[in-house]
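On clarity, I found the account of how folds are encoded harder to follow than it need be. Since the whole study asks how a given chain folds, the encoding of that fold should be made plain. The format is easy to grasp once an entry is in front of the reader. For illustration, here is how one protein appears when written out as sequence plus structure tokens.
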Amino acid sequence: MATDTYSTNSSRLVDNYIYLYHIDEWLIIPEYPDTISDKMSSTFASNNALSRTAPVFTYSNSGPRSVNVRLHFHRDMLDNVNYGKSNMTLEDGEDYMDAFLRKIQSIALPVYDTANKSVVPPMVALRFGNELFVKGIVNGGVSVTYEKPILKGNKYAQADVSFDIYEVEPFDAKSVAALGSFRGITSAFKNGVFK
């Protein structure tokens, strides 16, 4: 596998992140999920031919690829060391978990560009190490579940976040066979995010 130039530079050691295209922000995800579901469906049309004991299957379509992400955060295990490495903004009184959760909740909604009278869809790019990269839209919404105990400042200590990303870029069998779940990342994308 090709060496990622960003993994060798300690000031840019970012293996897990999500880039939010519609608000032009990227966030470090300070953990690896226990499991990630990366699913691709395939559909064939079945035709029963005369004098044949099995149907003839004709390829119809594949996809879309969907990646289900579930993250579990502990507020006391997160700190603002991650904050300085992304372009995420913190409001007064917020910690990293507060800011991360409100940004993640925004990926279920578009941005309205009044100047161009258009809707900017909430597209994201998600990376986990050198195993998974997907660029797509969040379909089905975002779920955040808060869990006790309650800490100082009347904030929950833990939160679970889950969402599904549906890939928007088409790929063929050869590129998927070569790159697997890490398909779609480009130098232009990385240079654009880490500017």
User: Anything to note?
Assistant: The chain has one domain: 10-193. The longest helix spans residues 96-105. Residues 1-13 have pLDDT under 50 and may be disordered. The radius of gyration is 20 Å.
